[in-house]
Specification:
This protein is about 30% helix and about 20% strand. Strand 7 and strand 8 form a beta hairpin. The chain starts with a strand and ends with a helix. The chain is built from 7 helices and 10 strands. The longest helix has 14 residues. It is globular and about 45 Å long. By secondary structure, the protein is an alpha/beta fold.
Length: about 200
């Protein structure tokens, strides 16, 4: 069965660690990091997708106008990633069965990886049972992570800038790790060094 799964793309951060400016607007092979991330997601099997904006909202929104994708502004983006997750969860359509939290500075995550996680959710999910689907490479967990609707209220109530790590730890018995053959599930481009390294690959 194919369930209704939304991707929430977190694109509100201030790029504090990136010396070169807004990391999402840096280019790799003539496309911005954000554009590449968005296109990989839109070519995947999501029911619909949402982008959460914040820092340099007007610049990001202008780029997003090129795509058929919903976007919502997070006025509290300086308070941490949890506030953007909350905006995303509050923006979900009522029929949504699952949400995948996607990081906008991970353009190396391919359509194949997104679809493997979606397929695993569709195969394993039962409407009365919580489920978290996590990609794994060499027994190490990465991103993005897919949560069933049982976790929506908890995701809305996260605090600070550490995302859902503690929520996942507390619900280890509900997690499903999916082996992925791509190291890019660890590769976020948040420093100049990471950017230069990614461009060489």
């Amino acid at each position: 069965m194919n369930y209704k799964i939304c991707s929430v793309v977190l694109a509100a951060g201030s790029s504090r660690r990136m010396k070169l400016g807004n990391k999402l607007m840096l280019k790799i092979k003539n496309k911005t990091i954000l554009s590449q991330t968005i296109e990989n997601i839109l070519y995947s099997d999501f029911s619909y997708s949402i982008v959460i904006t914040g820092h340099q909202n007007k610049i990001i929104k202008k780029l997003l106008n090129e795509y058929e994708i919903f976007s919502y502004y997070n006025p509290k983006y300086k308070e941490g990633i949890s506030t953007s997750i909350a905006v995303g969860i509050n923006s979900l359509k009522p029929y949504t069965d699952g949400v995948m939290i996607c990081l906008s500075d991970m353009p190396g995550i391919t359509k194949n990886t997104y679809n493997l996680l979606i397929a695993a959710f569709n195969k394993k999910y039962e409407k009365n049972k919580p489920l978290i689907v996590i990609p794994e490479y060499n027994k190490k967990k990465g991103n993005p992570i897919l949560f069933s609707k049982h976790f929506f209220s908890k995701l809305k109530n996260l605090k600070g800038d550490i995302g859902a790590k503690n929520l996942i730890k507390k619900n280890n018995e509900h997690t499903l790790n999916i082996k992925i053959n791509e190291e890019t599930i660890f590769t976020d481009i948040d420093t100049a060094e990471a950017y230069e390294k990614f461009k060489k690959n």
